[in-house]
Amino acid sequence: MKNTQLLLINDMCGYGKVALSAMLPVLSHMGYRIHNLPTALVSDTLNYPKFYIHDTTEYVRQSLAIWEELGFEFDAISTGFIVTEEETRIISDFCHRRAQKGTKVFVDPIMGDNGKLYAGVPESTIGLMRHLLECADYAVPNYTEACLLADTPIAEQITPDEARALVDAVRELGAKSVVITSAVVNGTNAVIGYDHVAGEYFTIPFELIPVYFPGTGDTFSAVLVGRVMAGWSLQRATSDAMRVVAELIERNADQEDKSAGLPIEACLDVIDHE
User: Which of 29, 102, 48, 90 is nearest to 266 (CA)?
Assistant: First the structure.
């Protein structure tokens, strides 16, 4: 993996382990060559009562233009939180161009949760994310985001048939493989998905841990990307990403300041357990 180059496109948090701050340690530990493109500079996690977000849209525009001029290549691109509509367009266009050259594209369409868009995220973002999904090899929305993308009503729980229909609706937007987190299927918490390589649907149940840390979704995505790029099947990679996140939460459940996120660097051995 030492020659496998990954580009992570996400925000960079100064204090706390979310977004790039959570993903970089995980994928570096796995042995990948990591490059990053911060979509915003954030003072601290948004779970604190005060924070500052510095828009980096122009930095993103200039960086991608220079990188393409210099001929930089990546084996895979992973996108996360994108701050502005213009930034979304720039990144989407870049990913489309890279995908045509064979770069694998992983899209975590971070827009909302718990049945609604995040504060400050305009509804127009949904359409822009749909365009980004057109070139995605792997789409990893949560249940709320999947429903928004598929224009499907959000429910407290869904049936197995509805779960498959939702996965297919996201696939119809262009994503080859889909992983939908935070679903409730027939009363059971589950991650649902479809692996285009194996041609198989899957449902992986899990026990909800009543402890919240920001950044767990970013850690999940990092492990998923790392395992898939190492040749694991999507279902196995998803299951292992779930295991890593669960073990990290359980190990740090007594941490006093949970708003800072999980202490990733001190717990990287969890990744090695498999």
Answer: 29
CA–CA distance, 107 with 14 (Å, rounded to integer)? 23
pLDDT tens digits for 64-118?
999 999 999 999 999 999 999 999 999 999 999 999 999 999 999 999 999 999 8
Return d(Cα 82, Cα 130) in angstroms, integer.
13
Helix 234-251 and helix 216-229: axis angle, to 10°? Answer: 140
Q: How crowded is residue 66: how many other Cβ atoms within 10 Å of its Cβ? A: 10
Phi, psi of 170 (to 5 degrees): -70, -40
- Map out the domains of the chain as residue ranges: 5-273
CA dihedral 147, 153, 159, 160 (to 10 degrees): -30
* pLDDT per residue as tens digits for the range 186-232: 999 999 999 999 999 999 999 999 999 999 999 999 999 999 999 99
Sign of CA dihedral 6, 229, 250, 181: positive
Residues forming beta bridges with residue 195, ordered by sequence position = 200
CA dist 252 and 267 (Å) reads: 9
Main-chain dihedrals φ then ψ at residue 120, nearest 5 degrees? 90, -5
Pick from 132, 128, 111, 7: nearest CA to 64 = 7
Integer Cα distance of 217 and 43 in angstroms: 19
5-273 classified as CATH 3.40.50.720: no
Given the structure tokens 């119809």, which residue do they identify?
A: 172
